[in-house]
Each structure stands twice: as C-alpha cells, then as structure tokens.
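Retro notes, item 3 of 5
We never archived the inputs for the adenosine monophosphate complex last cycle. Fixing that now. Sequence and ligand:
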Amino acid sequence: MRGNLRVLGIESTAHTFSASVVGEREGVITNAKDVYLPPEGSGIHPAEAADHHLSVAARVVREALDEAGAQGLDDVDAVAYSMGPGLGPCLRVGAVTARALSLASGKPLVAVNHAVGHIELGCLLTGARAPLVLLISGGHTMVLAHSNGVWRVLGETLDLTLGQLLDQIGRHVGFASPCGRRIEEAAARSSRYLRLPYTVKGNDVSFSGVLTAAKRLVDGGAPPEDVFYSVQETAFAITTEVTERALAFTGARELLVVGGVAANRRLSEMLRKMAERHEASVMVVPPQFSGDCGAQIAWTGLLAYRAGESLAGVAESVVRQSWRLDTVRTPWRA
Ligand code: AMP
Ligand code: MG
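Structure as it came back at the time:
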C-alpha cells in the first residue's frame, strides 16, 4: 500500500447515482452525482431509477475522476461500491459499474454497507469519534452505538422511516419525491398544531399512525402547511424522545446526526435542546453530504481497504438488498 491511499467510491442504492474520489490525507476530493426524479406525486420506480443510473454512470464516474485531477484509474488504489441495502435494480448498476472498472484497471473491489457509509462520512466531516448515532434517511430510522466491532441498534422504526413518512405525506399533496425540503419550507409558515398520534414502543418508534391521520387531515381540507408543521413536530418529538433515552443510557458525549433528514433545521433544534441537558454536543453532517453520495462509499471503502478488507474477485461483487447494519463487520473501529 502506498503512503496516501485514494479510493473511488460508487453509490447507487436508490435515487442517486454518485461517484467520488477520496484521499487518506485530503478527505473528500470530488463528489459527482446525478439524481433520478420521479414524476410529481409518485414515488421512486426501481426499474426507471436503474435506467437513469445506467444512462449517467459513465459520465458521473468520468467527472469524479477528472475533477480529482486523476490520471484515470491509475491514481486510485481501490474501487468501492455500495453492496446494499437498497433497491435491487439500482444496486446492480453500481455493482456492474464497479466491476467493470476493477476488471479494466486491475484495482481491488471493496464492498460497502450504505448505512455505514452515512455514519463514517459523518464522523470524518464533523470530527465525531465515539458518537451515539441517529441515522435518519429514506431507508433508515435508527439510533446506534458502536460496541464490540459492530454498530448496535438501540432503537429503530417498526414501520415507516422518517424519510418515507415525509415523502409519502408530500406525495399525497402532489409533491415529487423526495419531499423533505419542501415540507420543511412549508411547515415554517405555520405554527398551528393539529393533533396526531404519538407512538413510542420501548425504545422503538412508529410513524404509520401519523401518516394515516395526516392524510385524513389533508383529505378533510386542512391547510397543507398546518399538516406539515404538525407532522414535523410529532415525528421529530418521537425521534428526540428515543434518542434522549439512548443518550442517557450510553452516557455518550457526542450525538452524530446523519442521513437525508439530518438536513432539517427544526429537528436539529429539538435535538440540540435535548442534548444540552445531557452535556452532549450535537454534530450534524453538512447538508451537501447528508443525502446519499459517493463520498460515503469512497471514504468507508478507504477505511475498510486500509483495514485489509477487499473482495477476492469480481465474482464476489454481488448485491444485498437487505443487509442489516448490526451484522456488518467494522474492523477499522476498536
Ligand atoms: P437519503 O435516503 O439519505 O438520501 O435521504 C433522503 C431523504 O431525506 C428523503 O426522504 C428526503 O425527503 C429527506 N430530506 C431531504 N432534505 C430534507 C429536509 N430538509 N428535511 C427533512 N427531510 C429531508
Ligand atoms: Mg441513504
């Protein structure tokens, strides 16, 4: 291994196709992406998203390498890709792209778990070292702490993720997915709380009742901004409650917030007020890196490769649509 490792990473679990080059010393060097947007009012269609990824893959990878000033693949030590979890057709485009690049260059392949990617890039960018993690995205809603070689799940959703809740209520009023940012903007114009169910079970959360009740309010003619405000206040209070319990239990001094929903300022505000009581600092991944991106995969790939993890050959470069975070080995963390 040379002195300053560089890794190319490819992300393609859902709506985003992204490629990034990272360096051991420089951190994130480039992060090119192209996002599939479904038609207004509808959700992600896996086969269409995969077609999108196929049509942009070569250009996005080329952009990431060119902007890094790299001599093509000669300047990278390994090619990392998100093996899962995610949508099968989308994952396969990333895996096949990585496989082709590895075969053409002779560089080893490194398989990365997408959720671990969110966490490790969050640690790099915020400086968090041993955080309690709140992972809130389209695919996950989990509270995690690292122990004995894996990220342990201390609490999670029993049904919808926070991202799904926001996207589904947004689509119900006709927005295109992802809807989180538009909902945040509309909610900021209201302060009228409409009652919604509040469900915490042990240290797990449930959002399906919130969604059903919120859809009914919309159908009954309630102004969308009041519904969005109420959905945010309820769902974020639920999330903050279980996070507080995990913070008190672990005694962690850092709370790292990662995943696309981490971009929401109202949620950060609630978490900060709560964490103050526990003398913990809240570290939120910068918004340009909160959604899915290649940098998450490239950086985690670099950590894994440095710890000796790479695939024996392209035949191992499969995809795993379901791959729970608490089964992923993380040998680079004590
Ligand atoms: P990811 O799966 O990590 O790419 O995150 C995507 C999710 O983040 C989608 O469900 C978006 O609606 C959500 N999201 C993006 N920006 C915001 C925001 N400002 N507030 C709440 N959710 C957001
Ligand atoms: Mg994600």
